[in-house]
Amino acid sequence: MMGVMSSDLIPRLWGKPPAGRRGPKPALSLAQIVEAAYVLADEHGLSAVSMARVAEEVGCSPMALYRHVKNKDELLILLSDRLCAELPEPSRDLGWREGLAAWMRAQVDLALRKPWFLDLPLAVTLPGPNRLAWIDLAFYYLRDVALPAEEKLAIVGILSQYTLGEARIEVEAALSEEDNPFASFEQMLVTYADPERFPSLMASLATWSPAAPGERSEADNPSAFGQGLLIAGIEAHIERHAGCSGPE
Amino acid sequence: MMGVMSSDLIPRLWGKPPAGRRGPKPALSLAQIVEAAYVLADEHGLSAVSMARVAEEVGCSPMALYRHVKNKDELLILLSDRLCAELPEPSRDLGWREGLAAWMRAQVDLALRKPWFLDLPLAVTLPGPNRLAWIDLAFYYLRDVALPAEEKLAIVGILSQYTLGEARIEVEAALSEEDNPFASFEQMLVTYADPERFPSLMASLATWSPAAPGERSEADNPSAFGQGLLIAGIEAHIERHAGCSGPE
DNA sequence: ACTAATTTGCGTAACCTATAAACAGTTAAC
DNA sequence: GTTAACTGTTTATAGGTTACGCAAATTAGT
Prior knowledge:
The structure is a homodimer of 248-residue chains.
Chain A: H1 9-13, H2 30-44, H3 51-58, H4 72-84, H5 96-113, H6 129-141, H7 149-175, H8 183-192, H9 199-205, H10 224-240
Chain B binds a DNA duplex (30 and 30 nucleotides) through helix 3.
């Protein structure tokens, strides 16, 4: 009957100690499989990570992988947690503002270093040990901020999501070097944007100088704006709830 | 050699008038294909949207579709813009705060009505006419806010991204009715969370009462917190830049 | 106008991928 | 030893996509 929960993903994420093993010794280990996928993604992009290719790499039949992983999506979740192990921890001597900013930047930098990360179909990835350690770091920076755990969790979630978007923009910009990341967006606008159809948008954009190539509008860090906005929001929220930090 | 740009996606998104057609009259129209995909997704979920199934629906061979869309991903982009046509426009008599809140809520509500929306592999979807109209609405609410167009664009992007995450949470919660959306997250924590390994996280979570089922912690709107945070951030940014709204 | 070149729409065949199902060999527990 | 639990393989099916071929329609050349 196996009243097992819908997913053994969690034990697999955490390298569950194999229970009462009865059958033959496994020739493959999960770590080995994930590592093979990692190397493949790193060297040939995420598209090279097919079950067949991974199997070939570890020397087994493609279907053998399914004894260790429920399906390809699960392998990719494991892969994404594996990637989190590559995040370099910023200094712990930072205030929550600078700390979180560095925390975000490290993630964008990782995406720049491993662009295939953004090809992962993430959605609602359940964090594994490595990602959870990264979240723990965010909580470290927030340690002196007087907010309930659930709000901190929500904040970390929002920052993560923003970071992902920022990473996408920067990676795309880096790939089409010298080319504006909004190139296709701009082209679309100039070709089809109809002031009658999109009046508010066009009115606002009318005052926009599209930033000459090679020149950065604000600082040399285009993500500064979004980051600042989010940090400001957190600040405002903290101040607003400064007095009511008593229990209940 | 056809120095054609990498993508004819844009013309396709905008229902490009077919130029100097030379060959036989098309038996299929793009709109017809997208509509078939839309109906399939609506009735049987996104997994029912396979090239073969769509082709069957419009009465042609699977490969015929490739004369109208580059690949399945492009079909899905068209589909996602088609879905944006279903967004009901909130009242225009709202301040920017309330307007943007309603704008976000409408998107979450759409996701609740069409859960398959969240299965779309979106990433960096280039907006089509319908989505652009929706963005225009956001700019309408921001019309009296004195910020440069690029900052407004960044804000809208951040709100969109947050909304998507919020939608995911609410949809998941609605699917596992009565069940905590963080069920697996919580289970993972109680099983594996090690205070030595994740000290900051566990310290913060130690003061967390996991909210009894059926009870909502804050208001009956769990998204209030994130929305409030973002709106507060925007407010703070506006105030900070209140005086320097002059040109350059 | 008539033909030929060209361009376009669609189908067939073939390949790769993911994965379900059935199978076979292995080992520990009884 | 028998059995149950487990590992990996073989086989089969469905879906996405490329290569290619034929037919239709439009344009050019005469």
